[in-house]
Automatic annotation (TrEMBL), chains A, B:
InterPro entries: Creatin/AminoP/Spt16_N, Creatinase/aminopeptidase-like, Creatinase_N, Pept_M24, Peptidase_M24B. This is X-pro aminopeptidase protein. Residues 7-145 form the Creatinase N-terminal domain. The keyword Hydrolase applies. Gene3D superfamilies: Creatinase/methionine aminopeptidase superfamily, Creatinase/prolidase N-terminal domain. Keywords: Aminopeptidase, Hydrolase, Protease. GO terms for molecular function: aminopeptidase activity. It comes from Halorhabdus tiamatea SARL4B. Pfam families: Creatinase_N, Peptidase_M24. Its EC number is 3.4.11.9. Residues 152-376 form the Peptidase M24 domain.
Length: 392, 392
C-alpha cells in the first residue's frame, strides 16, 4: 500500500521544511506508515521531494532494501561512520552522519513529529540543521484517513476479535457458580487470567497479537484501564475489552462487551440500558462533517439526562462517564481522530471507536464499544457482535 | 522493587539539573523503571529531590495512586488545564500545565533521556524551563545493573523460554520429510508460521508475551532480523530466536538455537562448530572489569582465525559475522550494556546475551545465543538448554 502523503507535502510547504524526518523503531506507527519497514532498533526515515529514504545500520541493510517502502536505502558506513567514531566519539559521530546524510539529499531543514527524540533533534541543530516540531503530526493525520485496503485490514482484525470474544463469552456464560458466588468452569474457579488466556490463544491462532486485554469484574471494572485479576463473580458485570493487532498487516481492531451471569441489580440493568442508548445515539450522530465533539455530546446528553455525572458536567468527577467517547484505530490502537470534547470534523475513511461507559467503585463498571468506519453518507459499523448483558 | 537511582542522582548533580523528567507511555522501559506504572498513553514522571512524582490525566488518577512507585500523583486538572485550554489552545495549555507542575516542585531545569519527545522539550523551553539531554541515559545505565529480584525475574522468563524452545524443537525434530525436502508434521508441511504459533501459545500459557519470534530457514536465516516464513526444509539450518517478556514482571529472556533435520553440509557443520566455539570463548571471557569489546573480540578472533569475515575485519561485509556479540536484557529486550566493539566494562548484575552467528544468503545462517548474568567473580549462564545442531 502506498500511503497518501499529500497532507505531509502540504505541511512541509507550510513549515518551509525540506523534508520530514523520523527516528524510531518499527513499533512506531508513523515509522510503519512512512517506511513500510520493521526493525527492533531505531532507524531513520526521510521523506523529501516526494521520495522515501531509509538510513539504517548495516545489520538491517539487506532486509531494508528488500522490504521497505523506500526509493533509497543508505547506511551509516556510507558516511564514514567508523572514522568519525574513532575521531569524535559515538554521539558526535552519530550526529555527523545524520547531518551528512540529510545534506547529501539537499535537506537543510526538517519537520519532525512531536515525539521525535530530543537527543537527535538537539544533535542535528548543533550540526546546523533546522529542526521544526510539527505539533499537529501530519503523518498521524494522514494515517487517520484509511484507504479501502486499510479498512479491509481493520475489518479482518475485527473478525478475529469477534471469534476471541465469542470464545470468552462461551467460557463465562457456560460457567457454574459456587457457594461464594464465584464463577466455576470445569471444577475450577474462573478467573480474569483464565479468560484472558482463552482470548489471547484464540487470537494468536488467528494471526493476531495483543499486549493487553481487559477482563475486569467488580471494583476492577470501575477503573477503565484496570486489566482485571482474580475470580470472576456472578451478579457482577464483567467488562471484556479486546484490541488485537493483526501481525501481518499491523492494523488493530477494538471492541468491548459487558457480560453478567445471574441476575443483575437494578442499577446495573439501568446502566447497561443507558450505555446501550448512549452507544446508539453516538453511532446515529456519526457522519462526515459532524465533529467528534458532537458525537461525544450525544453520549454525555444521554448520561446527564439520566442524572449521572460526566467529565463534561464535572471535570474532576471520579464516577460516572469518566473517559472520552472514542478514538481512531489503525496502526495504533489509539490514534486520530478523537471522539471527545475536543474532537474535530469526521471524514470518510476515519475508523473510530464508540465506547460509552459508567463506573463507580461501589457498583462496578459497564462499557459497550463498537468500531466504525465513517463513510460518504454516514458510518458503517464494523462490529458484528450482539450487545447482551445476560444470556438470552 | 525500589530501583537504585544513585546513578541518576549523580547525573543530576553533574548536569546541574533540578529533576529528571520522563514523558512516555507504559511500554517505555525507563518509564516502567522510574514510575512502576503502566498506562497506554504517555504520562509524565518527575524524579526530583529523591522523590517520584507522577503527572497524569484524570482517567489514570485512581490507578496511578494505587499502583505507581510514586510519592505524589497529580493531575492536569489540578493545574487549571481546562481553563488554560479554553484560553490558549491545546498545545500551549499542555506546555503551561507541565511547566506549572515542575515549578510547583521547585524545578526550573530538567535532565531528559535522548528519546524524550522534542515537542515536549521545545514547549518546556518556551516556558522558560531548561531542558538538558542526558546523552548517556542515566536511567538506562541504572537499569543495566540488576538486583537479585530482577535476576529472578529474567531467570523465570528464561525457564518459560526453554519450555517454548523445547516445544518447537519437538515439532521440528519429530517432523518427516516429503519428496520436495520439506518438513512434514501430521500430514501437513511444517512452516515457520506453525512453529512460531507453537512457541507463542506455549509462552502465553506460561504468562509470557512476545511481539516477534524468529523461526528462519534457508535464505531467510541468512538475515539476522528476518522472522522467517513458509515451509521449513530438511538439510537446511533453522534458526529459532525467542525473546519473550514475562507479562507480570515485564522482564525479558533471550535465547537462540539452530536446528537441522537430516544431514548437514560440511560448511554448515563447520559453521556450527565454529559458532559454538565462539560462544564458549565469549562466555569464558566474561567477568567483572572485562569490557564488552574484549568479549566481542573473543568471538571475532575465532571467526577470523577460521578465515571468515566479521564487521571488525571488514565494516561493510554482508556475509560472515555481521552483528555484535550481544546486548543487555531486562525491561527492554535490547538494552545496556553492549557486547560489541564499543562495549564498556562489565559489572556484577549485568545481564547479557552472547550470540555469535554466521550468515550467507547462499548457505543460510547459524546462530547460538545464551543469556548470562555477570557475577562477582565471572558469570552464571542462565541458559539451561542443550546446543545440538542435529538430533542425538
Amino acid at each position: 500500500m502506498d500511503p497518501d502523503l499529500s497532507a505531509v507535502d502540504a505541511r512541509l510547504d507550510a513549515l518551509d521544511a525540506d523534508g520530514y524526518l523520523l527516528d524510531a523503531d518499527g513499533t512506531d506507527p508513523n515509522q510503519q506508515y512512512l517506511s513500510g519497514f520493521d526493525a527492533p532498533d531505531p532507524f531513520v526515515t526521510l521523506y523529501a521531494g516526494g521520495t522515501h529514504l531509509l538510513f539504517v545500520r548495516s545489520l538491517e541493510f539487506g532486509r531494508a532494501k528488500r522490504d521497505a517502502r523506500a526509493d533509497t536505502v543508505e547506511r551509516f558506513v556510507d558516511f564514514a561512520y567508523d572514522q568519525r567514531l574513532e575521531e569524535h566519539g559515538r554521539r558526535e559521530a552519530a550526529a555527523q552522519v545524520r547531518a551528512a546524510f540529510l545534506r547529501d539529499h539537499d535537506v537543510e531543514s526538517v519537520a519532525v513529529p512531536p515525539r521525535f527524540p530530543t537527543g537527535t533533534a538537539d544533535a542535528l541543530r548543533e550540526q546546523g540543521i533546522e529542526v521544526v516540531v510539527d505539533h499537529d503530526d501530519a503523518i498521524e493525520q494522514a494515517r487517520a484517513v484509511k484507504t479501502d485496503e486499510e479498512i479491509e485490514h481493520v475489518r479482518a482484525a475485527q473478525r478475529a476479535n469477534e471469534r476471541a470474544m465469542a470464545a470468552a463469552e462461551d467460557l463465562i456464560r457456560g460457567a457454574g457458580v459456587d457457594d461464594e458466588g464465584r464463577l466455576v468452569h470445569e471444577g475450577e474457579v474462573l478467573t480474569s487470567e483464565r479468560v484472558r488466556e482463552e482470548i489471547e490463544v484464540t487470537l494468536l491462532r488467528d494471526g493476531c497479537a495483543l499486549d493487553e486485554t481487559i477482563v475486569a469484574c467488580g471494583a476492577d471494572a470501575a477503573d477503565p484501564h484496570d486489566q482485571g485479576s482474580g475470580p470472576l463473580l456472578a451478579e457482577e458485570p464483567i467488562i471484556l475489552d479486546i484490541f488485537p493487532r493483526d501481525k501481518a498487516t499491523k492494523y488493530h481492531a477494538d471492541m468491548t462487551r459487558t457480560f453478567l451471569v445471574g441476575e443483575p441489580s437494578e442499577t446495573i440493568e439501568e446502566w447497561f440500558e443507558l450505555t446501550d442508548r448512549a452507544r446508539k445515539a453516538a453511532i446515529d450522530a456519526v457522519e462526515p462533517g459532524v465533529t467528534g465533539a458532537e458525537v461525544h455530546d450525544a453520549v454525555c446528553d444521554v448520561y446527564e439526562d439520566a442524572g449521572l455525572p460526566t467529565l463534561r458536567s464535572d471535570g474532576s468527577t471520579e464516577t460516572g462517564f469518566i473517559h472520552t467517547t472514542g478514538h481512531g484505530v489503525g496502526l495504533a490502537v489509539h490514534e486520530q481522530p478523537s471522539v471527545s470534547q475536543r474532537g474535530g470534523e469526521l471524514e470518510p475513511g476515519h475508523v473510530i471507536t464508540i465506547e460509552p461507559g459508567l463506573y463507580d467503585p461501589d457498583v462496578g463498571g459497564v462499557r459497550i464499544e463498537d468500531f466504525l468506519v465513517v463513510t460518504e453518507d454516514g458510518a458503517e459499523n464494523l462490529t458484528e457482535y450482539p450487545v447482551e448483558l445476560t444470556a438470552e
